[in-house]
């Protein structure tokens, strides 16, 4: 088996056993990024010098029998996480010249665990998008079919890991931006409970929804990386002060006795029948191995898309007001006065989708519309959270498809924002309720002569990441979908 097809767990074990060095591993991945990366456009910045320095330092520690749990393992970070001394652009013109003066907590903690930074990955501009087509640096392509999208907004991270350009990458999930790309690229993508992972140094889109997580090849890898990144951070007021379990130690929990709820609302109109069949087949694997399957109803869940597209733009209009051409980021040339500076800097610095969401958010927060839209959306958000809470009184996890279709073609939905937004219909509910959720590979469908991946989504109660990871791991012990690599990248 080639080095680049090994999982994070396998690489960490191999490094500790000195089967290969971190420098050898890092050079191997940097070579793949240089050779295969340009076609996919997965990276905004490749940090080759930093990576080689990190690798040499890791090898010195490993030679002495020291180093963190991920010592010497190469990773990539979504370009939404501040990285000290390295460009952090959010794939925007607005921040195309911004070099962060500090590390985000996620970056800091993975570095403390010993990881090697390969680079920063492309994304939808300011994390606003479901296809990675809104990036100032151009769209990312799906390694399973370069004519198709990899999903968004963490599409660069997804493409990089799926094409074996990096063993794992960080991502952020505001309405499905880790899980949907994971489904479209045959990866495991975990969104932890809101507050489980610090948002310090993660450039904000919608503060009550954003959550950091990761894209990996397996649930075992996700458990290792979550252990390293999770935990209380006094610099983040939304960080939860609760012990971090050993997620890896609980992976062996058997499926027998697990109560699984199939979400009725996820299996109706809008779901591609072929995708639905792959998901049903996966659920049958769980049933055959001891899980009990029941149907549950979350009647408010179909309202999640309109609710999200009121709440998220409202918060984005507030968060992005700081980008005004004064302190940092893009500034227009020769402004006539302060108002001209604001207007032209923001007009030039933001792309169409970001402008659309800022305008929507400003509208729903304005006098006369706040009660009609924003306040009502917050009330519906509570109804959605209550639906999940009732379901978890009967079952341990709820299950369904991650996305209604397989990866769609580049440009297919860019002219119709509503159709694009509906691609997140199955993922948004977990963000509105602050719940942990995971997407794992569960098979393929045939479209246009290509085999395209399908994702299975599991959602659990607050802080039930261990349960989601163990169910996912047990499923991955029974199937090999997660081991499949796109043609040309093995």
Q: How would you sum up this structure in a few lines?
A:
The protein has 15 helices and eleven strands.
Residue share in helix? 25-40%
Adjacency order of strands in the biggest sheet: 4-6-5-10-11-9-7-8
Class from helix and strand fractions: alpha/beta
Radius of gyration over C-alpha positions, nearest whole angstrom: 21 Å
* End-to-end gap: 9 Å
**Sheet of most strands:** 8 strands, mixed
Give the percentage of residues in beta strands: 5-15%
* Mean pLDDT score: 97
Based on Cα principal axes, name the global outline. globular
Number of helices: 15
Taken in chain order, the helices and strands follow as HHEHEHEHEHEEHEHEHHHHEHHEEH
What are the segments in which pLDDT stays under 50 over at least 5 consecutive residues?
none
Beta-strand segment tally: 11
Features of the shown structure:
490 residues, alpha/beta, 8-stranded mixed sheet, 3-stranded mixed sheet, 11 strands, globular
Account of the protein in words:
- The chain has about 500 residues and is an alpha/beta fold.
- Helix content is about 35%, strand content about 15%.
- The chain is built from 15 helices and 11 strands.
- The chain has helices at about 10-15, 20-40, 50-65, 105-110, 155-160, 180-185, 220-230, 275-290, 305-320, 340-350, 350-365, 370-390, 415-420, 430-435, 465-480; strands at about 45, 75-80, 115-120, 170, 190, 210-215, 260-265, 290-295, 395-400, 435-445, 450-460.
- The protein has an 8-stranded mixed beta sheet, sandwiched between helices. A 3-stranded mixed beta sheet has the order 1-3-2.
- β2 (about 75-80), α4 (about 105-110) and β3 (about 115-120) form a beta-alpha-beta unit.
- α9 crosses α12 (about 370-390).
- The longest helix is centred in the last third of the chain and has 22 residues, at about 370-390.
- The termini are close together.
